[in-house]
From TrEMBL, chain A:
<dbReference type="GO" id="GO:0019380">
    <property type="term" value="P:3-phenylpropionate catabolic process"/>
</dbReference>
<dbReference type="InterPro" id="IPR000391">
    <property type="entry name" value="Rng_hydr_dOase-bsu"/>
</dbReference>
<dbReference type="InterPro" id="IPR032710">
    <property type="entry name" value="NTF2-like_dom_sf"/>
</dbReference>
<keyword id="KW-0560">Oxidoreductase</keyword>
<comment type="similarity">
    <text>Belongs to the bacterial ring-hydroxylating dioxygenase beta subunit family.</text>
</comment>
<keyword id="KW-0223">Dioxygenase</keyword>
<protein>
    <submittedName>
        <fullName>Aromatic-ring-hydroxylating dioxygenase subunit beta</fullName>
    </submittedName>
</protein>
<dbReference type="GO" id="GO:0051213">
    <property type="term" value="F:dioxygenase activity"/>
</dbReference>
<dbReference type="Pfam" id="PF00866">
    <property type="entry name" value="Ring_hydroxyl_B"/>
</dbReference>
Automatic annotation (TrEMBL), chain B:
<dbReference type="GO" id="GO:0051213">
    <property type="term" value="F:dioxygenase activity"/>
</dbReference>
<dbReference type="GO" id="GO:0005506">
    <property type="term" value="F:iron ion binding"/>
</dbReference>
<dbReference type="GO" id="GO:0051537">
    <property type="term" value="F:2 iron, 2 sulfur cluster binding"/>
</dbReference>
<dbReference type="Pfam" id="PF00848">
    <property type="entry name" value="Ring_hydroxyl_A"/>
</dbReference>
<dbReference type="InterPro" id="IPR017941">
    <property type="entry name" value="Rieske_2Fe-2S"/>
</dbReference>
<keyword id="KW-0411">Iron-sulfur</keyword>
<protein>
    <submittedName>
        <fullName>Aromatic ring-hydroxylating dioxygenase subunit alpha</fullName>
    </submittedName>
</protein>
<dbReference type="InterPro" id="IPR036922">
    <property type="entry name" value="Rieske_2Fe-2S_sf"/>
</dbReference>
<keyword id="KW-0408">Iron</keyword>
Amino acid sequence: MTEMTKLDPKALLADVTEFLWLEADMLDRKAYGDWLDLWLTEGLYILPIGDGEDYENQLNLCYDDDKMRRNRIDRFNRGFSISSAPAADTVRTVSRIVIDSAEGDLIKLRAAEHLIEDKFGRQRIWAADLQYTLRVTGDGFKIERKIAKLLNSDGMLNSFSYLF
Amino acid sequence: MSLDTPKFSDLDALYDVENAKVATEMYEDPTLFQEEMERIFKKTWVWVAHESEFPDKGSFKLSQVGLDPVIVVRDRKGKIHCMVNRCRHRAATVCEVKKGKTSSFQCPYHGWGYGLDGSLRAVPYPEQYGDDFDKSQHGMLKLRTESHEGMVFATFNEDAEPLVDFLGPEVCRYMTLFMKQGGGFPVKVLGEHQFSVPMNWKVQLENTTDAYHFPIVHKSFMQTLDEKTEDLFAFMEKNEGWVEDLGNGHSIMMMMPEREDLDACLDDPIEPRFEWLAEEIRKEGYSEEQVKKIVLAVGGPGFNMNLFPNVSFSLSFFRVLTPVAVDKTEIRHMALGMDGGPAIANRTRLRLHEHFQGPMGFGSPDDAEVWERVQRGTRGGEELPILVNRGIVDEEPGVMGPRGHVSSETGMRAAYQMWKRMMDKEA
Ligand code: FES
Ligand SMILES: [Fe+2]
């Protein structure tokens, strides 16, 4: 995979697309253990509010380092959280993938995500702009940073029992 | 609905004070909701902003008083105004920017211009209105506005008592204690989480001083805390706290009495969970006393206070409710920090806020779920009452009203009594 990233932009796009689709499928199936394995330990998973980019010094919907990510998944899995027992079902599509840069083992890309949730017989629809920083490792792509910016991140939301 | 179910004209059937029973219609009746908007939200003081949200001359924010969208703004002299966001010509909203700074408001439709105090300043091509058109009669609809401890309230009611009288002495005292989480700096709103819940607004009104739900609903949050912090939140077991009716529908839930007054805790050792933080702040050159004060402030005070009808002070954030429809309520959780305080301390506050609050917090989604469950549950068994009688058995007199066990429903009873007072047409 390492060679491909340097050589062929089309092949790289196919590779990252496959990776994003696998991730989307994991999230819809709530295969969170597998999802955690996609991350580098130093990785950050952020859902910001509004247009600010100083994520560390602003209020976000979530700002997860490795520990918070694991706690979050634990909370989903252990069955004590009423909002995730059961959680809403989701079906999502990730598309409009644009690779911003690919240098060495570092890939920066953007994508669109559409998600529909279903719970209590009602469906809600969400759209997010995704930004990824991926590392190419001997073990495939790993996520160093994922920012999921909801279209109405600074507007009135609902509570989420799943991930974007 | 059967004919013998209580109608809202029968207030005693809607809230039975003696037995502390709430009728199902209280969450379900759209006509009652309209009445509440008129008799409560158009009549009493409603929280609209914190002063730090629009700190400068000309800065404003959009807010809501009941169903009325309003603009809260500071004029050139620093005076705060609140007016309905509606042009006096043909009703267009004059501002759709949530927060910002301006020298005037101009309606986008035909260009009527308003000053920061809402007065009509300019009308394009005025000739067709004739000579006796009186601009002073066409200013934006203003609300009375008063502040206390940086909290800005507005009311449509010219005859409402002064804000501090509505709050009462105990609420004012606790507000001052709450603001000590500025750690010696002014308290500043750092951001807000917003989510809407399919529930009646009173379901939220009940919740801020409801300790009974905490160990159940927030078990999954507690599980992510270290032991010492978990112990801090074990107020149900420790049984040292209380809930007290503070008058006019307001109430306080003192969960950690040892943290009532942060200034009285300055001799306490620094909590282990914040030792690393203390070290970081020391490195920035703060004195040991300041370090302690700031670290205590990061942890926040030990109580929730609920103000009737729409704002509460909850440990370390403000919770604001906005009724939208009989079964829809918008919630805002505003994160607070220290204006000018160490960045690391504010960062820590932000991370703590994200941990519990908001659409992806470890606490709020579970709250939202059970609130929605209440609304769903009241679709059945309409004749059954909702019980808010917990703890009535061992209540004792407090400073302003009854005081009960930390998990008693004293706060809800306080709110419903005020509700009843305000809904009473005769009063
Ligand atoms: S509606 Fe505002 S100027 Fe006409
Ligand atoms: Fe709660």
